[in-house]
Write a structure and sequence with these properties.
The protein has 317 residues and is α/β, with parallel strands linked by helices. The chain has one domain: Aldolase class I (TIM Barrel, Alpha-Beta Barrel). 45% of the residues lie in helices and 14% in strands. The chain contains 14 helices and eight strands. The longest helix has 17 residues. The chain is globular. The chain starts with a helix and ends with a helix.
Length: 317
């Protein structure tokens, strides 16, 4: 064995030692879990998640309108971006994955299959939200094996504080265990929402949500960053990361904002609050294809490659 190969193997072994495999992963699938984790994070420990589940969550409002690229109205725009850009994983509904992954260009995308979704047609004030699973983890595994896809994990949304939270918590717990049983990652979207939630961005509530994700055994939790008129957002986010323990925190991107401002905020979240990446949707797919790819690459540069905001900004078009 030459020195180059020995050094490469040594680096790979070091990366594997840093990945804490949950006890819920069977011994025979530990390597599969490690492979999926390394594929999603590119050995950085951070996840650059391209979130493409809004076709259900926000219906058509995120895809057509002022300032939104015309091609965003076509679902394939999401797959064109995900196949050409540098990302960790692309999260979307299993039905969309099944419809588009047969194309050779889209078969090599690392996917996270979103298992539940709900529309926004019922107003928040009208009824506490409930979103249950459309698919099982076995369904995801069958699609993965049939099409030979890079399916790295599953995703699920919980509306914490809803009177229906127990249904979603129980389902998320079961799906996380099932994902690990197959060597897949579990990523939870946790949003405090319902009649008893006065402020869904309240730091105390967001910090609590991160602790719930840890109790459920998730690998990553996607949260909306906490906001308070009296507390530093980064300090609150630090406390959120601490509450999550070994479950890694990634922040939702929200509505479209200035790209450089977005990059600076992401850099601060990672390097000052110690979050583990980003989950970005509208700020990517509402752009024309080349701009969307460039923005993904800039996010990847900060998230995975530890680039500065200045360095990442040079990738924008």
């Amino acid at each position: 064995m030459d020195d180059t190969v020995r050094e490469k193997n040594s680096i790979m072994n070091m990366m594997e030692e840093k990945i804490l495999v949950p006890s819920s992963v069977p011994a025979e699938l530990r390597e599969t879990y490690i492979h999926n984790y390394r594929l999603a994070t590119h050995d950085s420990g951070r996840l650059m998640l391209f979130a493409g589940d809004q076709k259900v969550e926000h219906l058509n409002s995120d895809f057509v309108g002022p300032g939104i690229a015309e091609e965003d109205g076509d679902p394939e725009h999401l797959f064109r971006i995900a196949s050409a850009a540098r990302i960790g994983a692309f999260a979307t509904q299993l039905g969309l994955i099944a419809r588009y992954s047969g194309d050779e260009a889209y078969a090599r995308i690392p996917y996270i299959a979103k298992l539940n979704s709900k529309t926004n047609m019922v107003p928040k004030h009208a009824q506490d939200p409930l979103s249950t699973a459309w698919y099982s983890v076995d369904d995801v595994v069958r699609v993965r094996d049939t099409a030979q896809l890079l399916m790295v994990g599953v995703g699920y949304t919980i509306y914490l504080g809803s009177i229906h939270e127990n249904d979603m918590l129980r389902e998320a717990a079961h799906l996380t265990m099932e994902a690990h049983r197959h060597g897949l990652l579990s990523t939870l979207w946790i949003y405090p929402r319902g009649a008893y939630v006065q402020d869904e961005h309240d730091p105390a509530v967001i910090i609590g949500a991160a602790g719930v994700a840890a109790a459920l055994g998730a690998d990553f939790v996607k949260i909306n960053p906490p906001h308070s008129p009296t507390e530093s957002p980064l300090l609150s986010l630090q406390q959120t990361v601490r509450a999550a323990g070994r479950t890694k925190v990634i922040c939702a991107g929200g509505s479209s904002v200035d790209p450089v401002a977005f990059l600076k905020n992401l850099h601060d979240q990672i390097h000052h609050a110690h979050t583990a990446g980003n989950a970005t949707g509208r700020n990517i797919h509402q752009k024309p294809l080349l701009s969307a790819i460039a923005f993904c690459n800039a996010l990847y540069a900060i998230t995975v490659e530890n680039k500065s905001v200045e360095e990442a900004s040079t990738l924008l078009v």
